[in-house]
Amino acid sequence: MIVNKTAILTISLLAIILSITITPAFGAQMDVRIDPTMTTTTAEIKYQRTVFIEYENGGQVADMMRGHTWSKVFSADSTSPGVNELRDRINYYLKTETGSNAAVTDLQISYDATLTGREINTSVDYKLVIDYTITNHMVRQQSGNSPGIVDMDWRGIVIPGDVQIFAKGMNNEVNLPMSVFYEAAPELAQLIRGSDAENILNQPIIDSSGIGNQPLANWHFLFDPTGINADAAQFGMSDELAGKVWSSYTMGESSLREGRQVERIQESSFMADTNYPIRSIQSSDAGNVFISGFATVDVIDGSEVFGVTPRAPEGYATTSTGEFPMMIIYGMAGMAALGGGAIFIISERRRKYEKTHNTQTGIDPSQLRASSTSTGAGGYKTNRGEAELIDSDYAKTRSVYEQGQIEQKTETVQPEPKPEPKPEPKQESKQDDEREKLKEELRKTLEELKKELKKQK
Question: What is the pLDDT of residue 426?
Fold first, then answer.
């Protein structure tokens, strides 16, 4: 039972460690820093997705794709044809679909797509990183002690259809996963074309709707006053942090606020010589918003905004000496005390169990004494010690080792009862008997010699 509990605990710990150390590829991951005293800000959004085509049983697609590899990597900015067209499409979406007044003034694009053909499947990994320069997101700019208001409805951007970016001397489609198959495996693309699988591969990569659909009130809030602490002035800090407080809002983890976050999996298939399954996997979206100042969530005319002040409200418990962190510390201390008490109770029960159930069996050590090993041929003598019974009566020793064998034989064969064997004589009595026999033989020999001498006379 103890072994089973130990194994379960070990497996649970390994699962926790693995869940912490293995980082998923988020579908859309947004990172943005906002200074409410500035009119522009920069946001980075990473879009990632993986597509698998399975062929465990072999077939036409397996013969076509095994060992086949392909990749494309490039970067582009506003000087590259197609980037400004994408910027205009984003601004049109923000104005017509989100109702936000924010506008994108510049874009930086990094694209990375890799196709890998394996023995049982082929995978295509997509990664598109876009850096947005955003303006008009400040409903009201912060000035002195006057709070600022930040529009956040722009965060859920979706661009349907193909997006052509000119780079490396050619046009590159970056928004539809199907475009990679047309370029890297045109024969496979023709097999997929017109099937239900094509619909999955035409879902746009530029899609951060999951970030926009999660209400800001459900995001996890942290407040960092490090920049205004006394130690900051004494030891110095970077210009970005010195004299400022920072608020952070994050989303993407499973919680009571956000609900259970799971990866989005779409499955379909296409027919060639046989049916081939296809899966599109995209992890849940994640977002990180860092704001200079103390930020709170509010809703104005149906739009979600951050209200930002230079300092936290009077009495707000956010520092290490405030009420909320101290409650966490006390709670953790209480949990540690409960855990220690539980360990003590379990150990004490185990000790009592061993004391009452684990009894000494076999020969009592108090009935043994040390004995040196006998000298062997050549005068060699080992250093190891031996033990022997203090009471060397063989009859007692024999009854210990032979009684069980006699009882076992009587249970199965039941032989006729035999007389109780007599105890063997001790070693000294045997030697005396041998001496008497030798003396008797010598007497007989002498008598025979005397008789022969008389005959000769």
Answer: 52
Would 362 be classed as within a structural domain? Answer: no
DSSP string, 213-255: HS-GGGSEEEEE-GGGSHHHHHH---TTTTT--EEEEEE-S-B
Asked whether residue 161 is domain-assigned, the answer is yes
Question: Do 272 and 135 reside in the same domain of the chain?
Answer: yes
Give the chain's domain count. 2
Q: Quick one: tokens of 16?
A: 């926790």
pLDDT at position 1 is: 43
pLDDT of residue 226: 66
pLDDT per position as a tens digit, 197-252: 999 999 999 999 989 999 999 899 988 776 555 455 554 555 555 557 889 999 88
Does one domain contain both 132 and 194?
yes
Q: Give residue-wise pLDDT tens across range 97-119.
A: 998 999 999 999 999 999 999 99
| Assigned domain for 145 exists | yes
Task: Determine contact, residues 228/246, Cβ cutoff 8 Å.
Answer: no
Backbone φ and ψ of 26, nearest 5°: -65, 145
Rounded to the nearest 5°, which phi and psi values hold at 400? Answer: -70, -45
In whole angstroms, give the CA distance from residue 29 to residue 251: 10
Count Cβ atoms below 10 Å from residue 181 Cβ, excluding itself. 25
- Encoded tokens for 249: 């809002």
Please list, in sequence order, all residues whose beta carbon lies within 8 angstroms of the beta carbon of residue 218, skipping any fewer than 6 positions away: 251, 257, 258
Distance CA 354, CA 348 (A): 10
- Range of 330's domain? 317-348
Rounded Cα distance, 102 and 136, in Å? 5
If we measure between CA atoms, which residue out of 125, 126, 122, 124 comes closest to residue 61?
Answer: 122
Q: Let me know if residue 421 belongs to a domain.
A: no
| Cβ-contact 198, 227 below 8 angstroms | no
- Residue 208 shares a structural domain with residue 343: no
Most distant CA pair in the chain, distance: 157
Tracing tokens 């980082």 back to the chain, one arrives at 23
Q: Which amino acid is at 310?
A: P
Q: What is the pLDDT of residues 384-432, one digit of tens each?
A: 667 777 766 655 555 554 555 545 444 444 555 555 555 555 555 666 7
- pLDDT, one tens digit per residue, over 126-152 is 999 999 999 999 999 888 778 899 999
> Which pair of structure tokens corresponds to residue 195?
């099937």
Cα separation of 370 and 389, whole Å?
9
Tokens of 224: 């960092």
